[in-house]
Design a protein that fits this description.
- The longest helix has 17 residues.
- Strand 10 and strand 11 form a beta hairpin.
- The relative contact order is 0.17.
- The chain has a seven-stranded mixed beta sheet, covered by helices on one side. The chain has a three-stranded mixed beta sheet with strand order 2-3-12, with no helix packed on it.
- It is built from seven helices and twelve strands.
- It is 30% helix and 28% strand.
- The protein is of the alpha/beta class.
């Protein structure tokens, strides 16, 4: 169903046949998805041996494509250099396409936060947005892919996350740092739109950015 994407991308950059392309069909029903590589490497076992980040329900067949792995192979073969990559691309035959970025993190790291050593950090949500946008722009740089993407009536950049409790807490910041944190976070305070549990906002390129928190289910 998505073979055209890999073929068009590689043909455009003269990399035909050099990168393996894999997609998996998800039959109608209920599914659970995650970042398999990150979950495999995770030593915290915060999910209690249930490596799930996104619960998905679909009434029509859809396909899942590991876009991160594909672009990583492209990078390693020096066809293109892509630093920011999201995890999955999911699509049906002709109506809807979703780029996904998965995160499993302590809740305080989802939004901007002050790290006791490294200073102000953008947070997991902002990082996911950046990765999703990077992939959108990378795909749309290929004219034939951009044209095909425009045929999808619904295009979503999905930030799917699961909250976990870290095994070791960060040291408490001294009182002056707490004041600095409060003032810094006020500057990064999201708009009411971004505070919504559904978080639906325009990314441009015909994509809407949305977040969903486990165990809420995403209905296709």
């Amino acid at each position: 169903m998505l073979e055209w994407l890999g073929n068009e991308y590689l043909a455009y950059y003269n990399g035909c046949g050099s990168v393996q392309f894999e997609e998996f069909v998800l039959s109608p029903g209920h599914h659970t998805l995650c970042d398999e590589r990150s979950c495999k490497d995770c030593s915290q076992q915060a999910c209690h041996s249930q490596p799930e980040i996104l619960k998905l329900h679909n009434d029509t067949p859809i396909v899942s494509f590991d876009i991160e792995l594909f672009l990583s192979r492209v990078d390693k073969l020096h066809i293109r250099e892509i630093h920011d990559r999201c995890d999955l691309l999911i699509a049906d035959e002709e109506t809807k396409l979703v780029l996904c970025e998965f995160t499993c993190s302590a809740e305080k790291y989802i939004k901007p936060y002050l790290h006791h050593k490294n200073g102000m950090q953008q947070g997991k949500r902002a990082k996911a947005y950046k990765q999703l946008m990077s992939v959108i722009e990378e795909l749309e740089a290929v004219p034939n892919i951009k044209s095909r993407l425009n045929n999808y009536a619904v295009r979503i950049g999905l930030f799917a996350y699961r909250v976990k409790n870290p095994l070791r807490s960060e040291p408490d910041a001294p009182s002056p740092e707490r004041i600095k944190l409060r003032d810094s976070l006020s500057a990064f305070k999201p708009s009411p739109k971004l505070s919504s549990p559904t978080l639906l906002t325009d990314m441009g390129h015909g994509f809407q950015f949305r977040q969903i928190r486990y165990p809420d289910a995403y209905d296709w």
